[in-house]
User: Which sequence fits this backbone?
């Protein structure tokens, strides 16, 4: 039982490049989330998926797209990376009986130069 | 939109001293969660509060939800070095996290 896994752990991109961050959970949770965390700040919600087949924008969705591939997997895509997207990205899934009880993955540290 | 302010930003205590962090929301919350993040780690869920005036305890940690459901606090009694980390609150329904309180404990 791995919980929430994220790949890659680290990534360096040049401005304008694209990439997809992968997230998977094995806890049979309906809800999944993508956050970014900038130094000294809290987490800001980028997108979330309340259930398979649905996605909704969070607080900071601009420059990102998401795909809820199936119940286990929720990916985050940067189409044209910008230095302002340098951050640590966390994926989370919500509990079966309480979607707000979130379990976080280990994070992806992304640098855009 | 919903904003959640958390204070203090940072606190340094001697081991054995108490610690409190506060969250204040600009709007009434449906519920609030608390998370702990160790340095270099990911947030870990601690607890959820739902009812007005609710108080919950986990060993040395006491969590409170205000009567108006616009504020919350986390109090740690007799801190230990294992309490080191950043404590975040998250207010709902907008899934808004506070900026966190970083706790340092001097042995």
Assistant:
């Amino acid at each position: 039982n791995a919980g929430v896994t994220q790949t890659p752990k680290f990534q360096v991109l040049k401005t304008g490049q694209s990439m997809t961050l992968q997230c998977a959970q094995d806890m049979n949770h309906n809800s999944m989330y993508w956050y970014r965390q900038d130094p000294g700040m809290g987490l800001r919600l980028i997108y979330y998926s309340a259930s398979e087949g649905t996605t909704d924008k969070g607080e900071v969705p601009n420059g990102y797209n998401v795909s809820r591939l199936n119940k286990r997997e929720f990916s985050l895509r940067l189409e044209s990376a910008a230095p302002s997207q340098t951050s640590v990205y966390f994926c989370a899934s919500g509990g079966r009986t309480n979607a707000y009880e979130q379990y976080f993955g280990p994070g992806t540290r992304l640098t855009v130069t | 939109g919903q904003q959640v302010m958390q204070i203090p930003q940072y606190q340094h205590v001697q081991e054995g001293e108490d610690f409190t962090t506060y969250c204040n929301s600009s709007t009434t919350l449906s519920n609030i969660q608390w998370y702990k993040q160790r340095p270099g780690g990911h947030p870990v869920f601690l607890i959820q509060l739902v009812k007005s005036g609710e108080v919950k305890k986990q060993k040395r940690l006491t969590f409170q939800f205000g009567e108006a459901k616009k504020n919350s606090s986390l109090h740690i009694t007799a801190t230990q070095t294992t309490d080191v980390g950043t404590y975040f609150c998250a207010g709902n329904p907008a899934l808004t996290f506070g900026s966190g309180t970083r706790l340092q404990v001097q042995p």
Observations:
- Chain B touches chain A at residues 1, 4, 6, 9, 31, 33, 35, 41-45, 48, 88, 90, 92, 94-100 (CB under 8 Å).
- The longest strand of chain B covers residues 85-92.
- The CA atoms of residues 42 and 85 of chain B lie 11 Å apart.
- Chain B has a mean pLDDT of 95.
